[in-house]
Amino acid sequence: MKHHLTPGTVVLVGGGPGDPDLITVAGLRAVQQADVVVYDRLAPLAVLDEMRPDAERIAVGKIPRGACTPQDRINEILIDQARAGRRVVRLKGGDNFVFGRGGEESQACALAGVPVEVVPGVTSAVAVPALAGVPVTHRSLSQGFTRWCPGTFPPGIRAARSRGRRSPERRPRSSC
User: Fold this and answer.
1) Domain that holds residue 104
2) For the range 156-162, what are the long-range contacts, defined as Cβ-Cβ under 8 Å and sequence gap of 24 or more?
3) Active-site choice (19, 35, 49, 62)
4) pLDDT tens string 13-42
5) Active-site annotation holder among 19, 21, 35, 40
């Protein structure tokens, strides 16, 4: 990331595994320079205390069985704020490109002609074991590790159980 945010740009910041002390230096700098920070409940909320006093906070996201900001609306907010010439930070928990819809947000901005920068967060797949004192690799115990993620499918599509084929089984699509 550049040292100074450019007006009209969206910066997707991964907030790390939850402890505000574990956000990257680049992520913290982006939050400190932002004109507006768009955040959700999974972001390290104490990091918002580092914002400039005149910067705007916009809460978005999804609460299970509660308030919900649809992803299309989040994308609109990012684009509208950037087009207004503001320096926009989208603060997310974890790594914004691991189940964080960062790819969708980046794509929406790019399609709208809005410049996007990415500040990856420290992923919990490595941070959580480290915080517990468990190394994911150790020279005398293991020379590598595999991070396994279960497959996901677009809304409405489920894996067929027979012969590994996908079958389009439509389910009601959530607006979030």
Assistant:
1) 10-127
2) none
3) 62
4) 999 888 889 899 999 999 999 999 999 988
5) 40
A 10 A CB-CB count for 31 gives 26
Give the CA distances from residue 94 to residues 120, 127, 128, 169, in Å, rounded to whole numbers and listed in that order: 8, 10, 11, 31
Q: DSSP E strands: which ranges in the chain?
A: 10-14, 36-39, 56-59, 88-92, 116-119, 158-159, 166-167
Residue 43, classified by CB atoms within 10 Å of its CB into exposed (0-12), middle (13-18) or buried (19+), is buried
Residue 1 lies inside a defined structural domain of this protein: no
Is 72 in the active site? no
Residue 108 lies in a domain: yes
pLDDT for residue 108 is more than 50: yes
Q: Determine, yes or no, domain membership for 143.
A: no
Q: What is the per-residue pLDDT across 40-64, written as a single tens digit (0 to 9) for each?
A: 988 999 999 999 999 999 999 788 8
Domain contains 163: no
State the chain's mean pLDDT as an integer: 83
40 an active-site residue?
Answer: yes
What amino acid is encoded at 104 in this protein? E
17: its two tokens: 């595994």
Domain count, the chain: 1
Locate 37 and state its tokens: 């920070």
- Rounded to whole angstroms, how far apart are CA atoms 108 and 76? 8
CATH number at residue 26: 3.40.1010.10
